[in-house]
Every structure is written in structure tokens, then in C-alpha cells.
Amino acid sequence: MPSGKTVKLVLFEVLQFAAVSVPLFVVMERFAGLMRDLKGQEDRTAYWLVVAASVAYVTSVTLLVWVPLKYLMLKRRRFITKIKLWRPTALAYVILCPLPCFAFLMAASKVQVDAGQQLDHFTELPVSLVLLCLICVDVVERIRTCSLTGKADSSPDSDFDLRGPVLTHLERVTTVTGQLQHHHHHDDAISQNDSPSPAPTDAITTTATTTINGTPAARRYRSDDDPHRQPTVNPRAYLYSPTPRSGPLRFLWSRDVRSEAFVDGFLFWLDTAEMLRAAADPRVFYTAWVFPVFTLAFLSTLRLAQNPLTSSSGVALQDFPFLVLRVALLAAFGGDVTPALYAAKNLLVCLSYVYFTFLARVVKRHSMF
After folding, report:
1. Distance CA 246, CA 243 (A)
2. What are the pLDDT digits (tens) for 122-170?
3. DSSP code at position 119
4. How far is CA 174 from CA 219, 227, 239, in A?
């Protein structure tokens, strides 16, 4: 019977391969059906040519790119394990699947405009399927190191556990010089006859217990390291102790990084989904507006390959381009094509990035407070 790790590995690999192949087959089949409708129901040559091209493309990229890349990842070759700033699997997926899918969506708009017919908006099922598979790949990459049963395995490199060290208490520890101090009183008469020597300094050492990801760790501080540090009076002074969540509603405070990965995945791509939804409007899909919409949507998917995601890439690949395009769409069509809320979101993200990255330091340098 296969082990749990083997079952998880097979499940993840099947899901990711399905995320690569299924959207391509669906989009290209819809495009083949569109070509058949434009040529006439009797002429099926174009239909089968597109279907054969889709099968050949999926087979080629699977054998030449996807399988070799997965082999290198699973075998953990040296040049693969050194890659820390981006995800090779996610980058390969973005290039192999969303790029040709969006290209065929734009081609569908072009052939219908050239033929003077509006047969299919071509955006509902294909676009939703592409984004759903994109989220699936993202979630699989994020929970790959977690167990699917029991409690989630927390690792130091986890992107979800952001809890920092918590100072729980200070404990006074008697030093060696403190223990020898009472012997000095008994030998006072003898020490008076001896040559004077510097008295030992009674250093107070305190132990600070910190909790890092649920693991206690002790750090010692000596009062003689800092001449201005005052020794503690109480033998044990609790500075912070997290209150355990108890009671009948304690399940509301429970958290799991695996379920949070699914929530974060959908929220992370919500802006891209809204941008692609604007392409469903006939005023956008059957005009030249469809090209910047799908082009910028694809550029935003490149964020999937970065690990970890930085605010600069989010602004450069999504928020600033989306802001420019949404302002142009609002000026051309009003609020019917794209909501003003998303334009405000892109504007606030761009302004906050510029302020906290560049202007906050200048303001602090010249501030009087």
C-alpha cells in the first residue's frame, strides 16, 4: 500500500498537470468551434486542425518542458534547490497555459471582428477555468510542504505563520559572585590582613524566556553589561502571557495555514478576475480594448512565479497598469464596464507604496517631531 507522502505527491502532480492541460483543451476547442461556425457547419477542416494543434501542443510541452522540470524538482538538483526568489514550476505554468489561452481569446475577438459577426464572447467559462487552475497551482505550491492530515506542519520558512517572539517572563538567577558574597563576611578578619584587591562585582543575570512559534527559548542578560541597568526586584515578573482561547466558541479562534491558503489564493487573484470580467462586455471584446485587457491580465499572472511576493512587483505588474487601464475604461464607457472601487484600490496601493518606500524617510528626516 502506498504511503501518505506518495499519495499526496501523486495527487498534487495530477492536479497541476490537469491545471495545465484542461484550460488549453477547453479554450482551443471553443476556438475551433468558432472557426467552424464562421466557415459553415459543413466545413469541419478548420475545427479538426485546431483540435489536432491543441493535442500536439499539450503533448509537446508535457514531454519537453513539464516532465523534465518536474523531474528536476523532485530530484532536487543543485541548480534547482538554489532557486529561492521564484518558483520554476509556477513560471513554467504561466508561460505554458495562461499565455496561449489569452492569445486564443484575443484571436477569437479578432476573427469575429474581421468576419463582421458576433457569435461568442468567449470569456465566461474559459476565463473562469484559467483563473481557477491558476489558483489551484498557487495553492498546491503553497501547501506542498504541509501535511494533508492532522495538524499543519509549521516550518521556519512558512509564509503563513507570522507570529514573532513573545516575551513571557523574567526570572532572576543568582550568579557565582552572589553566592560567594556571604563567604566574604566570614573571612573578613583574614582579608583585612591581606593585600587589598578589587571586590567582585555582583552581577545580576536575568533570564528572558521568549516563545517563538510555540517553542520556548531562553536568553540571559547580565546587569553588569549595562551600567545603567537596574536589577529586577521581583523574582518573576510576567510581562506578557497570551490568554488561551477557551469556552464554547473557541473554534472561532482556531486557524490553519492550509485552509488560509485557499482563502488567500482567491483573494489574491480577485483583481485580475475583475479585470478579465471587463472583457466580457461586447464594447470591449469586439474592439481594440480587448488587447490591453488580456495583455495586462497576463502580466499580472507573472506574480505567481515570485517567491515571496514583494510590493514592488505587485505595483509594477498589476496595480499601476490596471489603474491606467481602468481610468481609460471609465473615461470611455463609464462605470458599466469596470467598477470605480477597483480603480480606487489600485490608486491607494500605488500611493501607499510610493509614500512608505520613498517619501516617508524624507518626511521623517525633516520632521520636527
Report:
1. 9
2. 777 888 899 999 999 989 888 887 777 767 654 434 443 434 444 444 4
3. -
4. 15, 18, 21
